[in-house]
Design brief:
Layout: H1 2-40, E1 49-53, H2 58-69, E2 73-78, H3 81-94, E3 99-103, H4 109-123, E4 128-131, H5 151-175, E5 178-182, H6 195-214, E6 220-226, H7 232-242, H8 250-263, E7 267-270, H9 275-283, H10 285-305
Parallel strand pairs: 1-2, 1-4, 2-3, 4-5, 5-6, 6-7
Length: about 300
């Protein structure tokens, strides 16, 4: 058996490289044709009901505006009710026929059940669930003291999406609805000082890829991996000495997300050039590791020693 594994380890990579080189061009062509078909028959969400968590700022806020421009009904979820009311008023001005606001904490199971039930009771249906709520914290692992402080990252980023999805699935199935989940390029492009955030986003991708297979014929799932987008979170990241990163506008990202969800895309990376970083990690991980260490860790250690 060990010999077989050694043989496969030697023979399979070059064989797959040959197969890949032969099939890549026709595969990309067919994929492009499929993209054109999805774009032509993109879903019209006018009058449909969209539930958005983390809607009080950043990507969630602008996703709400983009759905509003498409005349969808909205249920906005976040902890800050005053901000939600402001965003709801703006969404109505942009064209949403009806908007409700439900203050809630996605890290609490009972809150997630409440806002899903509230949405369905009010509108009578649920068509899209946008799992956007998320937080982060910037700190080197070796400097961490109270690990309980990091529990909220997993509670909101990961478990918040799980709780919301579990309660929404029965209603989404009835409408053959869609789930949009906001992960991050940080799931596969590990940024220093963001270990727990990176882990939460990697967990989201793994879970929803599994769920996508389980619910394939009933609910569409779009996994979004944004790079650095202008928001409250990116402002904190800039203060953490990551201002070198090119941030895309929140509005542009939101437009791409809603368009992707309506097309029924499986994945979306914004900005799209960030996909290059994924292949860099696969092909030359040492280079990225050296760069991030020298840029975010070694420099800090040097200044600390001095």
């Amino acid at each position: 058996m060990d010999f077989l594994h050694k043989f496969l380890g030697i023979a399979l990579p070059p064989l797959m490289l040959i197969v890949f080189s032969i099939t890549l061009a026709p595969f990309l062509f067919l994929k492009f044709l499929y993209f054109l078909k999805r774009s032509k028959y993109s879903e019209n969400v006018a009058g449909k009901v969209i539930l958005i968590t983390g809607a009080s700022s950043g990507i969630g806020e602008y996703v709400a505006y983009e759905y509003a421009r498409r005349r969808a009904c909205l249920a906005l979820i976040a902890r800050r009710e005053d901000r939600l009311q402001e965003i709801a008023n703006r969404a109505r001005q942009l064209g949403s026929p009806e908007v409700i606001v439900v203050p809630a904490d996605v890290s609490k199971v009972e809150d997630c059940k409440h806002f899903v039930d509230e949405t369905v009771n009010h509108f009578g249906q649920l068509d899209h669930l946008v799992n956007n709520a998320g937080i982060t914290r910037f700190e080197l692992f070796e400097d961490s003291v109270q690990f309980s402080d990091f529990a909220s990252i997993m509670d909101i980023n990961f478990w918040g999406s799980i709780y919301s999805t579990h309660n929404a699935i029965p209603h989404l199935k009835k409408r053959k609805g869609k789930i949009v989940v906001l992960a991050s390029t940080a799931a596969w492009l590990a940024m220093p000082r963001l270990g727990f955030y990176n882990a939460s986003k990697a967990a989201i991708i793994s879970f929803f890829e599994t769920l996508k297979i389980e619910l394939r014929s009933h609910i569409g799932i779009t996994i979004v991996t944004p790079g650095l987008i202008k928001s409250e979170m990116s402002t904190k990241l800039s203060k953490a000495k990551a201002a070198w990163t090119l941030a895309k506008s929140t509005e542009g990202c939101a437009k791409a997300i809603v368009a992707s969800a309506c097309r029924g895309d499986l994945y979306l990376t914004e900005p799209s050039w960030m996909k290059v970083m994924f292949w860099m990690k696969i092909m030359c991980p040492e280079v990225l590791e050296w760069y991030f260490h020298s840029r975010f860790v070694k420099r800090r250690q040097t200044s600390k020693d001095s």
